[in-house]
Amino acid sequence: MKRSPTSLATFLLCTSLCAASFAAPAEKFDDKFRQLDELLPTATPYRTASGAPGHQYWQQRADYTIRATLDEANRAVSGSEQVTYHNNSPDTLTYLWLQLDQNIYKSDSDARRVQTAPSREAWMKPRGEEGAKYEGLRNTLVGRDFDGGFKIANVRSANGAPLKHVINGTMMRIDLPTPLKPGERVSFGMEWTYKINEQKVLGGRSGYEYFEEDKNTLFEIAQWHPRMAAYYDVAGWQHKQFLGSGEFTLEFGDYDVKITVPADHIVASTGELQNPGDVLTATQRQRLEQAKTAKKPVIIVTQAEAEAAEKSVSKATKTWHFKAKNVRDFAWASSRKFIWDAQGYKKDGTNVLAMSYYPKEGNPLWEKYSTASIIHTIEQYNKYSFDYPYPTAISVNGPVGGMEYPMISFNGPRPTKDKKTGELTYSKRTKYGLIAVIVHEVGHNYFPMIVNSDERQWTWMDEGLNSFVEYLAVQAWEKDFPIGRGDPRDIVGYMRSASQVPIMTNSESLLQFGNNAYAKPATALNILRETILGRELFDHAFREYARRWKFKRPTPADFFRTMEDASGTDLDWFWRGWFYTTDAVDISLDNISEFTVDTRNPEVEKAWAKARKAEEPVSITDQRNASMPRRIDTQPELRDFYNEHDEFTVTNADRNKYKEAMAELEPWQKELLAQGKYLYLVDFTNKGGLVMPLILEITLKSGKKTIERVPAEVWRYSPQKITKLLVTDEPMTALTQDPYWETADIDTSNNSWPRKAVPSRLELFKAERKAPDMMKDFNTKLKTDEKEGKEDAKPDGKPEAKPAVPPANGAAAKQEAEQQPQKPAGKQ
């Protein structure tokens, strides 16, 4: 920090010009605060410039009647459906598009054909050899042979006439015999079947899990029937091929679904069960009724009952009948392994039955946390959006790690069973991972199952917004909940990386899916809430967005515009920087100059100048001459006036000049000279490119600390370099930019004055490398199958002696190697 004596007029001139002085003449001005007009679509009667649905807003509707059968032995689903499609658009439609998402499992699907190999580095093991994971290679080879995808038959009109249809990958077009005019509806039907994928092998958002121990199967069934593609004002038909990442955008409607399964199965499903008397025992029905008003979960199917069901396979069947109103999708799960618990939650406009379904392998974790997590989710999400409108909310444990559908979600974490002792334990990561994934997936009921964004195009609109509310919700679970997404410090590594694309990138083109679609938008919204707008303005605007677009289909522009409209804040600079670029936050605190006001009083100013002189370092020559004999000391008669006075002596002429100057000043000018303020010019450089507010922690000589928050608009004239004026009552001893790490600054080493050393640890190790020893390896005792409990032995029962050196004959060595038992898979 440099302290410079200066006149008030000179200082004020400097402060008025300092910001402009940093703009390099040859540097092109980059206006970070220009409006998004060139990027956002023009407002229409369907979508207003304020971000609300317009007075002519419309959306299509599709109602389904489905009859389906689960073939447990062959792991297949077959069924028939009747679809009634309502054309609420102003357009006449000559054909309809449906999604056939199961076609992603066809061996020749686009998803498989466009797969690229991992980088060569990804195939290299630590020692440099080429290698691949067992699971990865199995997925590739099984996928080539798996007979997946829909088998569609009997596509027909309501009167039974065949309908021309064309299948294009994961999409199917049905040509209508007569155009469907605005306000009209059409009904059609079809039959279909498909083989269910083994989720642990082929992955995916649904599938089955086989339990070797008890020879039972658990099914999680989704994307399981042909569904109407979305048709809306912004995109027309949303018929982008399903390649695996971009999820689904669908139309709301009513479902009437009957599912036939083995009689000993328990079914969890979207919607409400219509025939409990046909599929549940009297005891189960009584427990279910009790659960509606219970204060803690009630076990509907106990673990003992589920374990008893595992021991045999019923040859009979039962049909479960469900209905769901105003949902955009439908999913279900089925197994005889299910334990089932439930608890009601009723508050304000929410009256829901929270339910969990899980195999014994999920306990003790699931019975303790699953249903409690569902209720916590609904309670918290209601605060930030709207009352949960559906009658049920379900969490199912199975092979899918985490996936959401209306009223039902699939969640994976479960305890680990020790193979030797059978003991069930779970790690801290598993416990909190389970709670977090349930909060996240149940939370998806709000975004996008109700606020129905286009997931096929904009993953961040459901995953990012939902991850943000999840971040808020888990903080209400317990202090220091390990969430990992939402806090600005957690995104810094990604913001530094070269593998970024803007958040506003199509779902299938994201390089780091989790960071881009989940973590970065969640962090951006958290910063917007805590640092830019404040909680009150943000929460009001966010609730307004959720309310406006409940059961409607918003676009990014609708979200951006609503947040600005409802908060009364121009945020175009924020959306541009965080959502449309890969710029990072890196604001460097470069230089500080300290000023105090020149009082014009020679008594004060010359004393101040003398004190500054005294602070200067003593030269090395003067230090070494300190004890030197001086003539003036031995002959004092040589001293005169100038030996008693120096340039800091106040003269009468100085005093007279001061009086004359003061006589010319107004009272307010004299007051300014006497205030004794400390003024600092602080230079900042925007190295990362993303403009953000300045959050300045000022430490004064007395130890007092204050926070000064400067809006991002401080960068509006010069987005690369600025100078900020700080005024204090006493000297400043330290200054820190972003002291709470709230802006995701990627380099905090340049955020402080004085600079702070970065602590780290240096690990010492021996520079030794073990050389291969073939003789030792050859003489190592041979391991045999543990089940045999013995080694290869001679007739006398003693182990056969091994030669001290390998045979000289290469053929003999090869023969011996071929006789060795192979190492178990997975061991090296």
From TrEMBL:
Biased composition (Basic and acidic residues): 773-801
Gene3D superfamilies, A to Z: Neutral Protease Domain 2
Bias kind Low complexity: ranges: 807-828
Signal peptide positions on this chain: 1-23
Residue span, Peptidase M1 membrane alanine aminopeptidase domain: 372-578
UniProt key word Glycoprotein: no
Transmembrane region(s): none
UniProt KW keywords: Aminopeptidase, Hydrolase, Protease, Signal
Enzyme class label: hydrolase
EC number(s) stated in the UniProt entry for this protein: 3.4.11.-
Ranges for region Disordered: 773-828
The UniProt record lists the keyword Zinc: no
Molecular function in Gene Ontology: aminopeptidase activity
UniProt-recorded name of the protein: M1 family metallopeptidase
Organism: [Empedobacter] haloabium
